Amino acid sequence: MQFVFGQRAARDPTNLVLSEIEPNVFLRPFLEVIRSEDTTGPITGLALTSVNKFLSYALIDPSHEGTAEGMENMADAVTHARFVGTDHASDEVVLMKILQVLRTLLLTPVGAHLTNESVCEIMQSCFRICFEMRLSELLRKSAEHTLVDMVQLLFTRLPQFKEEPKSYMGTNMKKLKMRAGGMSESSKWKKQKRSPRPPRHVTKVSPGPEQPAASASNTTGNGVTFIDAPSPSSSGSSENVSSAVSPATDSGLELSSQTTSKEDLTDLDQVASLGLNAGIPSCENESLKEGKIQSASVESIPEVLEECTSVAEHSDSASVHDMDYVNPRGVRFTQSSQKEGAALVPYGLPCIRELFRFLISLTNPHDRHNSEVMIHMGLQLLTVALESAPIANCQPLLGLVKEELCRHLFQLLSVERLNLYATSLRVCFLLFESMREHLKFQLEMYVKKLMEIITVENPKMPYEMKEMALEAIVQLWRIPSFVTELYINYDCDYYCANLFEELTKLLSKNAFPVSGQLYTVHLLSLEALLTVIDSTEAHCQAKVLSNIHQQEKEVVKSSPETMSSTKETSNSKTPFFDFFYIKLTEKSIPRKPTRFSCILPSPQELMQIKKKKKLLITGTEQFNQKPKKGIQFLQEKNLLATPIDNNEVARWLRENPRLDKKMIGEFVSDRKNIDLLESFVGTFSFQGLRLDEALRLYLEAFRLPGEAPVIQRLLEAFTEHWRKSNGSPFANSDACFALAYAVIMLNTDQHNHNVRKQNVPMTLEEFRKNLKGVNGGKDFEQDILEDMYHAIKNDEIVMPEEQTGLVKENYIWNVLLHRGATDEGIFLHVPPGSYDHDLFTMTWGPTIAALSYVFDKSLEETIIQKAISGFRKCAMISAHYGLSDVFDNLIISLCKFTALSSESIENLPTVFGSNPKAHIAAKTVFHLAHRHGDILREGWKNIMEAMLQLFRAELLPKAMVEVEDFVDPNGKIYLQREETPSNRGESTVLSFVSWLTLSGTEQSGMRGPSTETQEAKRTALECIKQCDPEKLITESKFLQLESLQELMKALISVTPDEETYDEEDAAFCLEMLLRIVLENRDRVTCVWQTVRDHLYHLCVHAVEFCFLVERAVVGLLRLAIRLLRREEISAQVLLSLRILLMMKPNVLSRVSHEVAYGLHELLKTNAANIHSGDDWYTLFTLLECIGSGVKPPAALQVTARADNDTGAQSDSEVSSSYHPSDMSLDRGYTSDSEVYADHGKPGKMHRSVTDVDVMNSGWLVVSSQWASAPRSRSLTSPIQWDGGGNRGKKVKLLG
């Protein structure tokens, strides 16, 4: 009736106001059904369903005073449920409902009333089902998902719990102690023999075939798992030996065919640990016969607390548990589990710590009881825990992470099971993502292990492991500031590995496939390199946007984004770092590493530290070969004081982990270094340590030499320091020395294989006997000797050089933990964006090389686009920091992929048009030049080479190859002429014949072009149109002056020669140069010198007429027409027109039409801007020369005879001959008035030019053979400077 009433109440809560009733009242009937072992599975299942409804329908008032006790009773009943099994499927349905109730109980608000003990019991029950392999996979997976939800809830609540006092934590940890890992069968049997009892909690049996006892599992085929109800132990018991079979497994699950006493998994003060039994259907009646019952138990391998167990407690006498009342049916009464009047404390940090410790213990690969399923489950739940809570803020949990969890995870990285390996990597990522500031040396070991996995050449290692290791590195590198922290905490630490530098080299090397084929590992390596670029580029973009925002607002704001974005990382203390300091004051200010002068050192300081680190490594290497040589080297580099400071050297020997322990031992034990030995021993803190413990610490710092006198010196110094540190506990120094020596001898006797072969190891009594009367005629305390004996026997003092295997791993791990506890373990967090400049300068080279390789080899569109994206980001960063060398290198690399420089002109349109990669590369080159042209320097040459190739292949837009002309009726001419005469003085007939011949040849070669060829050329033209090369000219006015000058130099460098460039190439570059000058007319004064010199070179040095000379003359006149209106440059422009008068008469006459038309246009548009009579005289002289054939004034001619020392004279020198007294030394130009004031005066002799004059006036001496040598082309070859004194032609670069 109670059951039916409860069901009705659950369905219709309006029938009764349950909140006014104590929960125990209406829950008791259902809980009794659940506890009763006489009920069948379906009945128990109905009761469980009802209880679940009470919870899920929120019918229990969380604020009721009896709720806590009710929840305890519910947890106790459900975790100790018992029922009569029917069939396997039905029984598993009941177990599924148990899981459902436990999950609902913990996850609903009333679950907050549960105690620490109850939460542990609930978790253990779920683990029990999860690890029972004989249960169906569906049930085990359900238990797994239930555990995930529970762990997530518990760790999500972690920040709400306060850390308990240490005394409270100590007592409660004993109650909640669970051991991961079971006992062997033999050890379990021994414990059963110590406390034999007949089984009292056995399963009800039902008719069915008798099943043999299972030996490897905890249920049989038809078995059903029951939840047992153990009785409570008394509050004073330190051990609970329960006959109940615990359902909460720690790690090992074994089956027992006996239901004799089993030690509980936990030692609970009030509530014993729960047990889950599996009953076996048999032919027996309801009455049970002890001797014939066969029950399989879903059990853990329970173990009591060793530290709380005595021999007496393991005696055959009845345990505390035996005094619990159990009725004839086997039901244990547990109502007394809550003491009357005792307040139930809700669960908190103790159960979470115990759960965390248990999960960590499940991941121990060296525990033979931990199966692969258990390890994987432990890792999965640890992943949930780490994802749910900031464990770093909880000191008890952090200690477990530092020591046990990291150790187990690193060991799991060596397993071959990929699922365990992958899950371990995930947990490692979560650890170092949130807790790396506490795990400095653990992180170093982890990264080294990943690097080892990536580089090892082991054919047995699966390829997937390398892939996952690289993925782990990529994940780590994506953590904001992680790469920067690697650099500052390891590369800039004297005694840590250069993790960032080594990883960069490894990734760069790994991005280049040996076979030439790209695999995932190569792309992952590139991905890791690009991670640094991505984050740096994002920081740069943020700074740019923030600067724009600041300019708009004209207010400097103190927000983090603004403050951080206004800081260039190359500076030290600025608003960017000021904000970081402000943020630090809100929390506790972190400790500063001793090597730094402040929390965030300047880049200059870091460079000094890295330099010192290199010297220390060199000195260490020399020390490991010959100690004195290493010390001397460090003294020479001022890293150690001169004369030697023993204390300083001793500290260096202790803190430098790279030193050879054997060499340290030899050096400090040298009789010449007695003072150093005392200083070395003084660096140890022996206070409070037993002699053997201090000796163990001492001998781990160096390799003990084998000579007796040397050992004596080392031990004498040790014992003297130990006695002082501990208040001289023994009679005298000799007694202390003898005991220390005896400990070393005992260590050799117990663990040296050679000694053990010849003699039986020393016993405790023999050890005591050997030391009889040594302590000043008296004996040492026997307890101390016994402790020392067992410590040495169980844990060998292993010299650093002798360690191998697990012993060596333990030693390395202990050293790591010890270093982490000192100031060496300080790990600095840095704000995002700091030191980006330093990191980029270290990574850009390998990154661009890897990008180039991947771009070249890959055929996948996504990978190609990723490479291009990387190029663009590198370009943006280099532009942001003004790294011209990086940007030039990038442009040069990209230009190689455009195919513009490697293909012949005939094939270029086809090859380029049919190469999608070349299109992408070309578009990227021009895009970067348009966007970041400010920092282009050497790269302009490569871009101009590409432009020339496009010009030759006739792929440039029409506007770029059409130029202004004075003579042509259309006002424009086409730079790419169909005829290519060496000069335009050829007869019309010859020109026509030449044109006819060339035209015929070209047409024969191009007759009937294929559709593919036409399509390729069309595609090429479209691509170049999208590149918009003309923008380089039109946007040049926005270039920084230095970049503009480099662009002009690149254009000027294109002069006709025998191999590379022809006349049309030079003419094309000249026209581009002239257009750029006109685009930059607002700052033409900055570039006029360069242009005028180039035009002077082309016009004055030409010995015969050619197309290039024509374009130079037209260009000069076009500049004059456009620039005369600008007063700041008009005088220099008019002065430069005298270049035409300096041309050779025969050449000038050939360009008379162009000059005439040009002067006409100039006078028509700019006559009002010509104010000086000298300037008018220049123009009229030009008109006279070209109109009537008058030769230019001799004073302006540079055509000197080869034997004339004076050579030709420039305008400035001519003017100085007229007005030597008026010559201003400060001016960079000569006015026309100075040239022409005395023009026409007969008999004026020009002075001779001396070397001093040449130096002062800016003349350059050119070989005299230049003018007389025969010319095969229309223009001269590049000038060869003659350093042979005063003779030769003088060419004035106007200025």
TrEMBL record:
Topology of the protein relative to the lipid bilayer: Peripheral membrane protein
GO biological process: endomembrane system organization; endosomal transport; protein transport; regulation of ARF protein signal transduction
Keyword tags: Cytoplasm, Golgi apparatus, Guanine-nucleotide releasing factor, Lipid droplet, Membrane, Phosphoprotein, Protein transport, Transport
Subcellular location: Cytoplasm; Endoplasmic reticulum-Golgi intermediate compartment; Golgi apparatus, cis-Golgi network; Golgi apparatus, trans-Golgi network
Keyword hit for Membrane: yes
UniProt GO molecular function: guanyl-nucleotide exchange factor activity
Protein name: Golgi-specific brefeldin A-resistance guanine nucleotide exchange factor 1
Gene source species: Accipiter nisus (Eurasian sparrowhawk)
